[in-house]
Amino acid sequence: MNTGLYVVATPIGNLQDLSARAVEVLGQVDLIAAEDTRHTQRLLQHNGLSSTLVAYHDHSDARVLQRLCEHIANNGSVALVTDAGTPLISDPGYRLVRAVQNAGFAVTPIPGPCAAIAALSASGLATDRFVFEGFLPAKPAARASRLAELSDTAATMIFYESPHRVLGTLAAMVSVFGAEREAVFARELTKTFETIKRASLQSLHSLVTQDSNQRKGEIVLLIAGAQPSSSTISRDVASLLERLAEELPAKTVAAVVAEHTGLRKKVLYEFLLSRKSL
Fold first, then answer.
1. What is the DSSP letter of 16?
2. pTM of structure
């Protein structure tokens, strides 16, 4: 095993999702830095592994990070894992990655499951552009303020949420984004009671309100990006649309410009139709 840090993705539910490469790395490294050693121990036992575990999480002090870096500096190897999914996605692992890189050692990703990407892939929402927001602020005022800042985001938005806060978050999203904004509620991905539901925010809020089982487990919320209005079309884009429309059908023009600008084809097409009516 080469000296350095290995960032290893682990299953988000189904233990069969641990890759063969991840099993090999976890079995060969000197140390595994784990968010919860008890949780990771069960994963290791499932795969017949008995590697040495070290607790490394949000509340670890600087001495743990220093110990891991010193181990690597002495030609050692360390794997970084989180309880579920890809490390550094909504966890503090980047501090270790930066420290190892700054010391001049290799950091190798061992890719695999990630709840945000798994949810996005099965959401039915646009995937060409998306933003990952992680957990929103816990306090209602701060949460509403952050959502307001995101209200005009054109890309699909991805959030993690805890079971005891999900109702409040959905209510806040209805208030800020509007009851009819399309969204996806994804819960317990890859597990027995997996739920993936695409509907309006109001419908999802009703679903979670009426079914207490939907307030259990790991939850990902995805929100469709804001639809740009004709006012979001810049002067340069408007000029391009009008010039191309002199040579091509409006639908073709809208499709081509949408592909190159990221604006919605429907909005561009409607803009062209409105210009024809003037």
1. G
2. 0.81
